[in-house]
Amino acid sequence: MNDLRSAIRANRLFDGGTLWEGPVMVLVDDGKITDVDRTGAAPPDGVSVTDLGDATLLPGLVDAHTHLAFDPQGHTETQMLGDDDAKVLARMRKHAQQALQAGVTTVRDLGDRGYLALQLRQERQELPHIVASGPPITRTGGHCFYLGGEADGLKEIAAAVADRARHGVDLIKIMATGGMSTVGSDPGAAQYTVAELRTAVQTAHELGLPITAHAHGTSGIAAAVAAGADGVEHCTFITRDGVQPDEQIVDAIAAAGVFVGCTVVRPRVGMPAEVLATIEPYWQSQAAMHARGVRVVCCTDAGINPHKPHDILPSDVAYFASQAAPNSAALASVTSLAADACGLGHRKGRIAADYDADMLAVSGNPVHDITAIQKVRAVFRAGQPVNR
User: Fold this and answer.
1) Residues 323-335: pLDDT tens digits?
2) List of residues 6+ apart from 15 with CB closer than 8 A
3) 230, 262, 339, 353: which could join 348 in a potential S-S bond, CB 3.0 to 4.6 Å?
4) Whole-angstrom Cα distance, residue 215 to residue 226?
5) Residues sharing a CB contact under 8 Å with residue 105, sequence separation 6 or more, in sequence order
């Protein structure tokens, strides 16, 4: 008997797009799904069976925006400038394991220091699949400068993209605007011109790499879309008069098929009034974009503050569903759609033959009650159960 073959049974299945009621059985061989049976048939002879009973099987969750190097309880800038590589790498490993325990079997790291996420990517043992951008490209002294990705002007930007390609990154991340986690940075202000962003996009695409742009401010969002970026992270639409989405830009995003990384934010006691004032219009904007066909991906920005631990995605997608999309669409946004955003739609984010056997089982029915996504029964990574 081939001990790599196995079968997993449950009472229902969300395959990345559709909920199927009734008995389901997923057959796995050597880390890949070979068949999905919904007839109630017996497993093949000699195949070990894990019967989860009254549970829902889903694809393993995909967090399309995380920062494994960031300690939610620490001061990011101080740690990134002061901690040695061994300390940062150990922290990243712990954070990746936390995500996997919660059912997050793929993470896209959109900003590390010293390409450490690429080093972690090679370990694989008891870790999620890691998609890594390396240090984000930012102007001198710009947002997340402390990660070491400073580049100014067309030549430096093109060289920075090429350098990341030589290191073997999976995609390019560029800071089109300032951000909220860098002292003195203005999230509403553009950091690069359209020409500079276009240089980054063209260089990345010539090297076979997608590129996503961090952009809070409307001017930076417009510039990233005009430059041909594949994704826009946050997409907050900050203007001088507050958060105000621009319908023409939204239409351009939808027409171009740009992925929008909706990093979940919730109102919390103690938040500054100026931040609280942005949250309701932010969610109105994200919901409107989803309704207009924009590929809005629920993701976490894990690590950026104490409210963003690395296992927060199940909780965040439940909140996302309450604000921006129906439950089934919300679940797709952290499975099939998120996998597409990460360039892994051919092997992740769905439960179907020839896909990786990364799966999550939860108690209850998350399409009917989205909070069931937090009731983890089992996690499988490449067909193997994750110790919990």
Assistant:
1) 999 999 999 999 9
2) 36, 59, 350, 351, 352
3) 339
4) 13
5) 59, 60, 61, 62, 128, 129, 348, 358, 359, 360, 379, 380, 381
